[in-house]
């Protein structure tokens, strides 16, 4: 087992109930673990939510956290993976002054080379969206910073695992 | 009342009746076989109280003097009966007053259902009068909780609450019900809950893990069992006894495991932990196989973790997967219900008796007896000791009493010296160490087991945290025997100040009231003992009393509890003086 701190994604399948976010985040809070990013969304199964939580921890502690999470009544199953065991994306939004689009020829190149998408343009500003790895978004951020960014935000990490999770099968065994 | 009959999909008939949410609450409790509930009324729960008034022939409501008292009484009820304890309170301050008892029940795995009233749902989140976010507040200390804002959701919520509270590793649950949900009418029918999709309360025992455990135990030269409350919660006492007897393993208990097998059992080698017995603590660091059963390696039990039983192979029988490897790394984890696992283990074990290894326990006991126990229970110097009071209670009860203790020195003395013949007889606040637990818990225990002798033992400090429950004893005619071991100090804290803070007794000296007068003020028969020659007679009088009885024993002011493992020390560094 790895004894070095590294980024892990924790995927938690849960019932879609009010209050669970509180219960789950409290588990991290009690142990003074900083959540790097958190995303909650519907999953591939009806009425089952999926949390994707990114933490920087050593593996033994992640295992203990998983135990505490799974202990919650409304949690169906929790898994943890290193970043190279998952396929993940982050999405960044950049709001930039519109005049730059026309006055700074370099901006056009940045957009093209980074494969960012223009979400909207109006007279005052335009909005760029870029999905990818954390580093790719950071790189775009760095390049645009030179010209000035009006607003910037980045989503939590979302991930699917390379291996199977078999939640439906698990739910079936619960049913019996 | 309008009655109608509907057919559901399976073509079975469910009878539904149009009733209010509050009546539904009471009917659900009755359907869950609840006979006694503890609580305190208020605006947001009044409709329920009105129904309790109508249904008083079915459910007995006990008005405690404080909501904390209601939780501890429900806990005492649950601990001695193995059933779910139930308590109710109003919104706001009523609900927050439950928190201490809920936290206590959570860490000690006690099944409890708490129902709180809440403001009207349209007022939620508006800082309305007596509104608190009790679901938010109680989240970290409940096994499960929820808020109900619709009358029709009440039966399912209560059914789920009972199921979750008592299944698997038990615990407290809380349901917060808005006043409109209590008042609205709906078509009521009730179905017990037997399953929650995402919840797997009892992991199935893997036979391979049991086989591995058996192999280790059969090969062990110096095995040691440490058992906890899990044995009692899964009603594994008989299976447990059969296992240790067949394999001849000396067995020690955690504070909540006490009484699962009789104190006098030849394989019972005493308590582990901070104030536990000398032999099992020292020999934890000598055994070759440590078999933990239904216990969770609390830090009060293990002392310093990196020197805890490092020489031993560790087998952990446990129902809660989150406990495996949480504190102590195991070699074999047997997940599942303790009773089921131990029954599978029994036929795989070789008969054994380990005479030399057991002799080591006897030798260390002799040392502890000479240095500590003799002077605790048969003192010769002036000043009554807590130990001799316990000894007298043992003599008079012949080991048949349930002992409910509060928290402090007297608790450690009670657990060390009380003799138990029957299981579920040691009721104390283990994980949270809640002062004020003892007296109300004893009330609940006595009401759950009226035929049993229930003796509560408190210190002068903790007793005054819930002293008002004498009113409940008096009103309910609960024949609890209440013993206060008065040392005019917050004794346990004073002991630490003496040992670790150069005797700076900061705010631990108590100037106490006339306890006998207070008890008599509640019409409870009372007596105070200050001299050794009166002790036996007073204890006898108390135990023979058919009614509640209060006994104050003035014990030596600066007595200490030994053995002791100072915090951060290794279990084998246990101090005898
Ligand atoms: C509610 C609560 N507050 C504080 C403590 C800390 N504490 C533990 S033992 C103790 C002293 C108990 O004194 P007393 O009830 O007189 O019993 P004794 O130790 O003298 O037997 C205190 C203050 C606690 N356990 N619970």
TrEMBL record, chain A:
Residues 9-83 form the ACT domain. GO terms for biological process: isoleucine biosynthetic process; L-valine biosynthetic process. It comes from the Bacteria. GO terms for molecular function: acetolactate synthase activity; acetolactate synthase regulator activity. InterPro entries: Acetalactate_synth_ssu, Acetolactate_synth/TF_NikR_C, Acetolactate_synth_ssu_C, ACT-like_dom_sf, ACT_dom, AHAS_ACT, AHAS_small-like_ACT. Its EC number is 2.2.1.6. It holds the Pfam family ACT_AHAS_ss. It catalyses: 2 pyruvate + H(+) = (2S)-2-acetolactate + CO2. PROSITE patterns: ACT (PS51671). Belongs to the acetolactate synthase small subunit family. Catalyzes the conversion of 2 pyruvate molecules into acetolactate in the first common step of the biosynthetic pathway of the branched-amino acids such as leucine, isoleucine, and valine. This is Acetolactate synthase small subunit. The lineage of its organism: Bacteria, Pseudomonadati, Bacteroidota, Flavobacteriia, Flavobacteriales.
TrEMBL record, chain B:
Its cofactor is Mg(2+); thiamine diphosphate. Residues 406-553 form the Thiamine pyrophosphate enzyme TPP-binding domain. GO terms for molecular function: acetolactate synthase activity; flavin adenine dinucleotide binding; magnesium ion binding; thiamine pyrophosphate binding. This is Acetolactate synthase. Pathway: Amino-acid biosynthesis; L-valine biosynthesis; L-valine from pyruvate: step 1/4; Amino-acid biosynthesis; L-isoleucine biosynthesis; L-isoleucine from 2-oxobutanoate: step 1/4. It comes from the Bacteria. CDD domains: TPP_AHAS, TPP_PYR_POX_like. It catalyses: 2 pyruvate + H(+) = (2S)-2-acetolactate + CO2. InterPro entries: Acetolactate_synth_lsu, AHAS_TPP, DHS-like_NAD/FAD-binding_dom, THDP-binding, Thiamin_PyroP_enz_cen_dom, Thiamin_PyroP_enz_TPP-bd_dom, TPP-bd_CS, TPP_enz. NCBIfam families: acolac_lg. It comes from Tenacibaculum todarodis. It is an enzyme of class 2 (transferase).
């Amino acid at each position: 087992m790895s004894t070095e701190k590294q980024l892990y994604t924790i995927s938690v399948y849960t019932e879609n109930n009010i209050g669970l976010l509180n219960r789950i985040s409290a588990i991290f809070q009690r142990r003074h673990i900083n959540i790097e990013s958190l995303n909650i969304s519907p999953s591939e199964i009806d009425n089952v939510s999926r949390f994707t939580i990114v933490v920087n921890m050593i593996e033994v502690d992640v295992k203990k956290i998983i135990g505490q999470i799974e202990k919650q009544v409304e949690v169906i199953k929790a898994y943890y993976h290193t970043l190279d065991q998952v396929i993940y994306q982050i999405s960044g939004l950049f709001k930039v002054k519109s005049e730059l689009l026309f006055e700074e020829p370099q901006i056009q190149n940045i957009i093209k080379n980074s494969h960012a998408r223009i979400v909207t343009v109006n007279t005052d500003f335009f909005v760029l969206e870029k999905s990818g790895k954390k580093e790719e978004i950071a790189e775009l951020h760095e390049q645009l910073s030179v010209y000035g960014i009006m607003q910037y935000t980045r989503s939590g990490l979302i991930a699917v695992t390379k291996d199977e999770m078999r939640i439906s099968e698990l739910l079936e065994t619960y049913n019996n | 009342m309008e009655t109608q009959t509907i057919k559901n999909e399976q073509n079975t008939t469910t009878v539904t009746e149009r009733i209010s949410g509050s009546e539904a609450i009471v009917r659900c409790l009755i359907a869950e076989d609840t006979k006694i509930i503890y609580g305190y009324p208020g605006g947001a729960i009044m409709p329920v109280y009105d129904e309790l008034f109508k249904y008083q022939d079915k459910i007995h409501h006990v008005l405690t003097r404080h909501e904390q008292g209601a939780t501890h009484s429900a806990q005492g009820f649950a601990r001695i009966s193995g059933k779910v304890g139930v308590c109710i309170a109003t919104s706001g301050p009523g609900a927050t007053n439950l928190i201490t008892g809920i936290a206590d029940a959570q860490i000690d795995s006690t099944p409890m259902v708490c129902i709180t009233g809440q403001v009207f749902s349209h007022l939620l989140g508006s800082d309305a009068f007596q509104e608190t976010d009790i679901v938010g507040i109680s989240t970290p200390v409940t096994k499960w909780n929820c808020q109900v804002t619709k009358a029709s959701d009440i039966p399912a919520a209560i059914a789920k609450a009972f199921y979750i509270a008592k299944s698997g590793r038990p615990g407290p649950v809380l349901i917060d019900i808005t006043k409109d949900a209590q008042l609205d009418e709906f078509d009521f029918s009730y179905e017990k809950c037997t399953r929650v999709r995402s919840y797997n309360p009892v992991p199935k025992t893997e036979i391979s893990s049991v086989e591995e455990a058996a192999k280790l135990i059969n090969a062990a030269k110096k095995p040691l069992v440490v058992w906890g409350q899990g044995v009692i919660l899964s009603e594994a006492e008989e299976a447990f006894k059969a296992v240790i007897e067949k394999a001849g393993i000396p067995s020690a208990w955690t504070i909540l495991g006490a009484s699962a097998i009789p104190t006098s059992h030849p394989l019972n080698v005493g308590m582990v932990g901070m104030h536990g017995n000398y032999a099992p603590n020292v020999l934890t660091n000598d055994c070759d196989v440590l078999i933990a059963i239904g216990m969770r390696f609390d830090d009060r039990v293990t002392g310093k973790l990196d020197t805890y039983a490092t020489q031993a192979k560790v087998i952990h029988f446990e129902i809660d997967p989150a406990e495996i490897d949480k504190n102590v790394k195991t070699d074999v984890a047997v997940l599942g219900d303790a009773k089921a696992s131990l029954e599978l283990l029994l036929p795989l074990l070789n008969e054994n008796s380990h005479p030399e290894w057991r002799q080591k326990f006897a030798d260390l006991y002799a040392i502890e007896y000479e240095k500590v126990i003799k002077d605790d229970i048969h003192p010769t110097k002036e000043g009554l000791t807590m130990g001799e009071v316990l000894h007298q209670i043992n003599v008079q009860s012949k080991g048949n009493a349930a002992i409910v203790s509060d928290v402090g020195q007297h608790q450690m003395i009670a657990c060390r010296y009380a003799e138990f013949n029957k299981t579920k007889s040691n009721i104390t606040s283990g994980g949270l160490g809640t002062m004020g637990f003892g007296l109300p818990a004893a009330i609940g225990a006595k009401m759950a087991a009226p035929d049993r002798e229930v003796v509560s033992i408190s210190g002068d400090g903790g007793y005054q945290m819930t002293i008002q429950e004498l009113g409940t004893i008096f009103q309910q005619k609960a024949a609890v025997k209440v013993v206060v071991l008065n040392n005019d100090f917050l004794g346990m804290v004073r002991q630490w100040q003496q040992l670790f803070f150069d005797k700076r007794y900061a705010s631990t000296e108590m100037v106490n009231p006339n306890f006998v007068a207070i008890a008599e003020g509640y019409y409870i028969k009372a007596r105070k003992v200050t001299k050794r020659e009166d002790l036996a007679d007073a204890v006898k009088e108390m135990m023979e009393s058919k009614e509640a009885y209060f006994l104050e024993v003035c014990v030596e002011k600066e007595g200490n509890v030994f053995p002791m493992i100072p915090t951060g020390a290794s279990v084998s560094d246990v101090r005898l003086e």
